[in-house]
Each structure stands twice: as structure tokens, then as C-alpha cells.
Amino acid sequence: MATRDLVIRPVRPTDRDRVAELTRDVWNGHDYINSVFDDWVADAASAFQAVEVDGQVVGVQRLRPFAPGLVWYEGLRVATSHRRQGLARAMLTSAIAEAREQGHGEMRLATGNPDAVRLFESVGFQRLLDIRWWRGPRVEGGESARIPAAAEAEKLWPVIAKSPGIELYHGVMADFNGARDLGPALLARLAETGMLRAGPGGRAVAGLRRPWGDNLAVGFLAGAGGALRELLLALRFEADADGLDDVVVSLPRDHPAADDMRASGYDFANDDDHSYIYALTL
Ligand SMILES: CC(C)(COP(=O)(O)OP(=O)(O)OC[C@H]1O[C@@H](n2cnc3c(N)ncnc32)[C@H](O)[C@@H]1OP(=O)(O)O)[C@@H](O)C(=O)NCCC(=O)NCCS
């Protein structure tokens, strides 16, 4: 590849059709980039970028500041016609340099693509989370879990910090839209936005994340035994009350809640695919 012909520039509204074209064969035609394209182009707080080779857009990426000091890297795509020419590496290297210049402390991302994993690990990203998905179908007839107030939420942290398996989260929530640091501040934030659920006596807690489909999506889980099982069941009741299909829980691999999940009607949903969250200190 003649690097002199490579240009990285902001995506423009007029790139819409070309971006749709180059993402057509990603994930069997189910790439989400097209549905977020207009929002991403309009979002001045983030950098949605295109890479051009010889005047043609052949790849995209996005850098999005999502918490103090943290920037989320997403939407990396290279056209099938231009793969294995070092383009993704060039784009990522440029994104890292830009994030450093802007003074961010850490870049985080989520990926399920083993090719992308090789790329990210080769530039120094560390794997924070190895996620397995569990699914619990909606069920009728019970009460949804309690949403604690923000002031109460922060006080739940000491219990969560001692919860079995919490260390497997490596300090971040399994949120594929931006993995924030786990801690009392996150609990308060989740409570304020209606995204925290507590089981009996605050002995089990679930942090919700924005879902991709018609489900209630859990990005972290704390607690064990009866309190956790009660909470897991209450989430299935809530899915039913909200007209959602099911509850999806992103749990770190080998998390000790697996038995409680099964006992509460949840199935292990992704035996063969992978989902990881990575971080790079800038
Ligand atoms: C993943 C993707 C962005 C790579 O783009 P690319 O321009 O072909 O990547 P590069 O040529 O810069 O390769 C960079 C590194 O990625 C890894 N890699 C990329 N494609 C690979 C493949 N087919 N097999 C094995 N490793 C691969 C290699 O480590 C490679 O380094 P190397 O060439 O020194 O061995 C591209 O395949 C793509 O758009 N895939 C579909 C969308 C997607 O999954 N994006 C990532 C979501 S986070």
C-alpha cells in the first residue's frame, strides 16, 4: 500500500451510501453502523473518521469520550477489497495518537472478532473482560426489582466490592457501549438513570446497560445465593412487565454466579462466540 495516498478525515453526510456499501458484508449484513450513521456524523463531541485510499472511502472508525479520562473506540471497519493492507493498523495508530493528544488517560473498546483481537493485542491493549452471555426468558406474575435511590446506591458498594466473582470484572462494567469503572460513583449514576436494580436487603445488585434488542440487558451482577436468585427472577418479571422478550446478562467467563443463573431459569447463550473488552493506557 502506498501510504502517501492514505488520508484520514471526518466522515461527512455524503459518505452515507459508500459506508453502507462497505459495511454490507459485515456480520451477514447486520452491521449497526448504518442505523447510527446520522447520529455519529452529527455528534461533534466524538470523532467519526473515514480513511480514503486514492480518493475512495475504504474504512471508518470512531473515537468517543465517554467518561472523564476515558475514550471509547468503536466502528472500525475496512472494506473487504482493502483488507490485510495495514489500513486498520494505520487507522488505529492514528486514533491512539489523537486520543493521547487530547489528554485522555485510557482507551477502551469491545470486540468479538478474533482478527481484530490480534490487531488490538499487537498494539498493547490488555483484555479486561471475557464475557459470556446468559439469557432468561420473560416470565409472568411477579414483581420487578427495586430501583435504589442514588444516595442509597453508593452505600451498596462495600457489599458489591466483596461479592464473589466481582474481581473477574477487572474494575469495569460489561457495557459494550462504553465500559465505565465499577465503583460507588457508577452505582449512583446508574440509580439516577433508572439503571440499577437491588435484590432483598441490597444483598444482590444488577447494573443495567443499554440493550441492543428487545431485552433487559445486565452489565454487572453482584451477590450470591437466595438474594441473587430472587433478583434474577425479578428481572425476568420486569422483562415481562415491559413487554420485552428476555433478560440478557453479560457475565465474565467462569463467574461463580453460574449456578444461581441456571437455578433462576437462565441459559448459557453463547457457547461458541466471544466478546471481550480491552483497554490501553495512553
Ligand atoms: C478487523 C478489520 C478491521 C481488519 O482490517 P485490516 O485493514 O484488514 O487489518 P490490517 O491489515 O491493518 O491488519 C492488522 C492486524 O490485524 C490482524 N488481522 C487482520 N485481518 C486478519 C485476518 N484475516 N486473519 C488474521 N489476522 C488478521 C493481524 O494481526 C494484522 O496484523 P499483521 O498484518 O501484521 O499480521 C477488518 O477485517 C474488518 O473490517 N472486519 C469486519 C468488521 C470488524 O469486525 N471490525 C472490528 C470490530 S472491533
Label this structure with key terms.
282 residues; alpha+beta; Aminopeptidase; 2 domains; 9 helices; 12 strands; elongated; binds coenzyme A
Notes on the structure:
With 282 residues, the chain is of the alpha+beta class. It folds into two domains: 3-104, 3-Layer(aba) Sandwich (Aminopeptidase), CATH 3.40.630; 131-275, Aminopeptidase (3-Layer(aba) Sandwich). It is 30% helix and 29% strand. The protein contains nine helices and twelve strands. Strands 1, 2, 3, 4, 5, 6, 7, 8, 9, 10, 11 and 12 form a twelve-stranded mixed beta sheet that branches. The longest helix has 17 residues, at 225-241. The mean pLDDT is 94. The protein binds coenzyme A (COA).
**What is the H/E order?**
EHHEEEHEHEHHHEEEHEHEE
Bound molecules: coenzyme A
* Contiguous uncertain segments of 5+ residues: none
Q: What is the β-strand count?
A: 12
Structural class determined from secondary elements:
alpha+beta
Radius of gyration, taken over Cα atoms and rounded to an integer in Å: 20 Å
Task: Output mean pLDDT.
Answer: 94
Within CATH, the superfamily of the largest domain carries the name Gcn5-related N-acetyltransferase (GNAT)
Distance linking N and C termini:
28 Å
CATH architectural name of the largest domain: 3-Layer(aba) Sandwich
The fraction of residues in strands falls at 25-35%
Estimate nothing, just give the exact number of structural domains. 2
CATH topology of the largest domain: Aminopeptidase
Outline: elongated
Question: Percent range for helical residues?
Answer: 25-40%
What is the number of helical segments per DSSP (H or I, 4+ residues)? 9
- Indicate the CATH class of the largest domain: Alpha Beta
Sheet with the most strands, sense and barrel status: 12 strands, mixed
